[in-house]
């Protein structure tokens, strides 16, 4: 995608305020081989991804495993080196800031992790985990700190008496609440939720999702909600972006994406969602994709989806489809949808 | 444990005004009282601690109760068996064995513990740095390999030959040689610790809680102190307990070669080697210092085992 295409990148309607703008973001991991550890290639985990996130909205980011969803989230938070492109948060370019400036900006953006077991230090108690951001960024007295920790625990629905317990003493859902409380500690405006419910029981998923929604309403949070659960994204998201093999293939407001998906990959994904109504389920047409996902170290030429696309034709192998606007707020990268 | 539903009205907004009335909190559990409770429930650790304390008390206070000069020669009373006058008998020059073991214990324990601490410090530092900072990994691990490949005994001999006299004049004969021995043992035994710690750090730094700390903006120094070090405590504890034993034994080997402490200066290792020549005649001369070394090593091992469990909250809860 050229610079000209970047200008054509998805822009939000001018009325709503843009909180985060991602322009042509690429994250490539070099592959070193041989005796001299020479670089022989790169895993193109994220390639030329552009999108906006509006203040107060939830942008759902979906795609199958290994398509670069989590890497995108981590790159935005500057936890993974960015190969190319720009990340602009709240009008400030944070792509290249370092050191103390970056440390200060981290207060504005936080992350909720997938595996609540792995994201909490087993040697720290709940109060220690939740107060870590406060210790790093605020100078509070011991009493104020304690008070703030209790407030946060109330906000996520943890009993105050749990403050001295350790992560292993909690269930998955409670651990995720601890992770959410930690992310909220500094009043960030923007939170990347990296599959926050994927590791939880289905019965607990609903509780955590409701909690996230409630907190969003109360605190005016903006979420980048990464998930592979299409029905959960449909419930949560204002707009939905679909990724395949490191590229963004479609971005649309929720209802539009679920009712009229334009990209063949999105169509295939949505056809795989089971229907609760048995009569409609019986008539559901599944689009079965053949073959495997190609290696991101050696992606196909042209359109990356062409090797598995049921509608692929000659042009797909030659020309990379631009990520273009189809109708208001609906973007897709497919030659067929021109 | 079940998941708690969100209290409908009880939740206050984060960052909202102060709470109306804080419900009564259960008394703050002190972490160290938990640690002690777990440690005390480990029977081996308690026994180990008791034995180790006994050995320390014996070596420090014992000299006041059994106030015989360990250097006093009494050639007429040589090679005696246990008696009231000489509770552990005498050696071939008529020196009192108990007094020698007490005096030797002071040196051996001091050497063992200080050398262990030194090697632990160096090993942990190098292990953490090379595990955490990718750029340092290559050079530091090659440095470790270099030390592992060095033939230790010749190296020790050279170091001692070169620096013994210098340190003796600077710090006096006894503390000079003590510093030298501790330094030499510490500096040649940190490699195993460094490697084990590096391996653990490599695995730990990819864990999500370290990523979470980075996303909070915790600087590397505090990530290491707060998240990495407490989690590599177990392997460090194990190498520490093994290190004490190792240091005592290395010191004995050095003394045996005539390069450690002067020959009239008893240490457990020295007593053991001196006694080895008379094993057939007076086997108890080997048994007592050997027993002292074994008991120390064993008790320190058990203490380490108990401490490792007590410091791990996952085990502590059970």
Q: Fill in the CATH topology of chain A.
A: Rossmann fold
In percent terms, what proportion of residues of chain B is strand?
A: under 5%
Which chain pair shows the most residues in contact? A-B, 59 and 44 residues
How many β-strand runs of chain B?
0
Poorly predicted residue ranges of chain B: 1-27
The biggest sheet of chain A amounts to: 8 strands, mixed
Oligomer: heterodimer
Radius of gyration of chain A: 21 Å
Class derived from helix and strand content of chain B:
mainly alpha
CATH architecture group name of chain B: Orthogonal Bundle
SSE series of chain A: HEEEHEEHEHHHEHEHEEHHHHEE
Which outline of chain A best applies?
globular
Report on the biggest sheet of chain B: none
Indicate how many domains the architecture of chain A comprises: 1
* Total number of helices of chain B: 13
Which second-level CATH architecture of chain A applies? 3-Layer(aba) Sandwich
What is the fourth-level CATH superfamily of chain A?
A: P-loop containing nucleotide triphosphate hydrolases
Membrane topology (chain B): Multi-pass membrane protein
Domain ABC transmembrane type-1 (chain B): 105-304
Transmembrane segments (chain B): 45-65, 107-133, 145-163, 175-197, 228-249, 286-304
Keywords (chain B): Cell membrane, Membrane, Transmembrane, Transmembrane helix, Transport
